[in-house]
Sequence to fold (428 residues):
Amino acid sequence: MIKSSVSGLMLLITGMFISLSVQAETLPQDAEDAHLGVATCASSVCHGSVRPRSATPVLQNEYVVWSRLDRHRNAYNILLSEESYWIAKNMGLENAHEAKVCLDCHADNVSHEKRGDRFQVSDGVGCEACHGGAERYLSSHTDPDQTHQDNIDDGMYPTDRIEDRARLCLSCHIGDDKKIASHEIMGAGHPRLSFELDTFGVLQPAHYLLDDDYKIEKWSADSVTVWALGQVEAGYQTLRLIESHLSADKLFPELSLFDCHACHHSMSDLRWQRQERIDLPPGSVRINDSGFAMLFPIARAVAPAQAGVLAEQIRQLHHAVIDKGDVQASIRTIRSTLELLKASVSKTDNISAKSQSLLSDVVAIGGAGEFQDYVAAEQAVMAVDLLMSATGERDSHENWLDQLYTAVEDEDIFDPYAFADIMQNAAF
Fold:
């Protein structure tokens, strides 16, 4: 777990948060536009200025920030490490830095026919991996008369829209229908994946300025809204993973879809305790539902009528997976409820005003022992951190927050009972 202090900025238009366009259909890796390479953005008169500039709508130092400070720059280099060598060897691959299964998330791994003359896969997760192939917008996106929507129409990916940003980030940090950190990959040595949109976003250096121009032309939000919409998208992505990778044709399903710690702990570690939100018997290999865990307090805050419905639907999904029931039907019902929840979050007038009730709810759930799973506790700690920042209570409760982070510091020795005790000791 990474400790973070979360802050953000919101755009309030006519009294409510709105998205300016429909959700993008295609992620940058799968779109048709050619990727011309990071070098095409690196000129000092483009995005390669050593210092930020104020005379233009953008800072023009975006390439320098990415190349020097952003972890995505080193994503490909990780594939050259000793750890990656052994993971590849264990999987029977010649190496990691040329294997598609590795490059799909550690680089801008577009097909060869979509690579421009200056494109280098060794650049890692570069500009176009997130912003889309620049084939059509490179020469026009600096035109003063070109709007942001014009750029999107020309192939730029709308990373400013929270739902689209979440879907893009989650495609690698959790997986999607085309790529997944499978049980085979993790068995070979790859670490378990975890993600929360707002927390991970603020841990990277911003290469854009949330000024008035940005807020007028694009869509922005405070940390609580980013978190809430990110959690809804994580719910969608969890459903997509189950739908795409939970095969009934194999003796064993894709085990990475399940909670690692349901199996990977000592037999003498009697950590099982019945959880209302899951309601499975001892010994059940339960799905990894970290993408659902924070949806309940969000639903109770913005759509109370949907909260109980969602809880029952997720319980039914757990049982359908274990009992070989109609998983697809469960997925469809949850997806419909998520649509309603997403609409409720988007329409809520300043959801950050509900930060205190959200925080209290998450802490109450934790104190009641409902975060028995490490993956759920991990999400809860990140939520508590950003919600305390939103309420202004973070500094005054830093020692308590440190205890929470220490409790989830090592998943191999996570003690759910101690975690619940810490949650119960919250002094607010």
The chain has two domains: 1-21+161-349, 25-157.
